[in-house]
Amino acid sequence: MFLRGEIRLWEHFSIEKLQQETALSPNNIITNMPSRALSAATSSIFNLTSLLQSLPSATPSQAFTKCSACLFSTTANLEAKRTKKRKVRKHVDPYRLAQARQRKSANLARQKVLEEERKLALGDPVRSRPTPFVESLRARAPVEAIKESYLNYLLKKEDVEKSLEYSKWLTEPLPETDPVPGAQDDLKERIEKHVSGHENASKALLAIASLENASTRDRTRINVQRCIEEFGRHRTDGVLPPKLQSKQSPGTSTTDAGAGTTEVPKRIGADTGSPEVQIAILTAKINVLADNLHKKDKNNKRGLRLMVHRRQKLMAYLRRQDRGGPRWQNIVEKLGLSDAMWKEEISL
Question: Which segments carry the region annotation Disordered (predicted)?
Fold first, then answer.
């Protein structure tokens, strides 16, 4: 099948060939042409015109194809462009569109409220909830409750009392072995003076070692000692029940009466490395640092971030090992720990 462009090109070439044969100008082709040639030319033009009218229009796929006989490319037909189907725009009801937008805004507002409620339920990932033990660990907490049991400079009250008694015995005046005849014996006065001097020295020593004159670093050191004594397993092993063991674990039998429990070996010295002790120590340091942190203090902020993430790992480990048992419940209740401290990602 010929395209319209090819047929028109062939018709143009046939007319030029006819002009060359008759050697006439283009204006005189019809007038000077013989009757026989004129009839042939008119018949050929008539046949080409009828052929062009009978040809179908070019499809869009054939509009930009190349002819096999020549190097000329065809163009798209205008009629084919006009007959293309136009996209019909659907009718949108503005009332329904406004309702959809209103529902979307209401859903987004509700999601925001629920997210805030979830964050409040999880708690603060840094600071603990206020409990009696946590409040006593703060830097500005009153020391009346603990100053009788703890002293500064790592001193113990029993050791200080023993040292004072020993110093009093060493400095106590003794009667003379070789008294001078006729001299006045002033032993009683010297003893009374020694007693008053020893009392003044004891008061001064206790005032120096008292927690009322301690710095923040000294208070932190005392808090570490209190955490070890409160949560150390050398003390909690006799108070809290042991963790339940699986019946399928090796070394246990289902026929024994105490198959679900195992004997805990006795500890020598204070427990300073168990996860609950480390969590308590980190909590005491984190609370003090968070209360005194400045906005532009980047160095201490980095230290706070490291301690918070370290506590998160220890809490996840204790939760996994203890399975929410008595040790986990004890440390959560006394330290006021929340789920946000170990469940989700913490970003400061």
Answer: 236-270
